[in-house]
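# step 3/5: fold
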Amino acid sequence: MAQENALQRTGRFQKAKDRLQSAVTHLEEAIQNAQLGDAEERVSALEAEIQDLKLKNTNLISVNKKISGSLDKIIGNLQSTLKK
């Protein structure tokens, strides 16, 4: 009888251990999937930010060219005025 009880307890412990291991495995998979999802979201957000920064950079280049042209004209006018 005592041996039977010990075997039953061992069986219950083994089942509990198996269930616990299964739960841990499921949690690890869920964490990994969540991290992959987070990574994909971060990559997507970073790609959008890169596109936004490229657009801003293009706009700044255009503004820079306009200002540079205006400054060149002003410098030319000042030089010509000083020569007179």
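# step 4/5: annotate
The chain has a mean pLDDT of 86.
# step 5/5: archive (pending)
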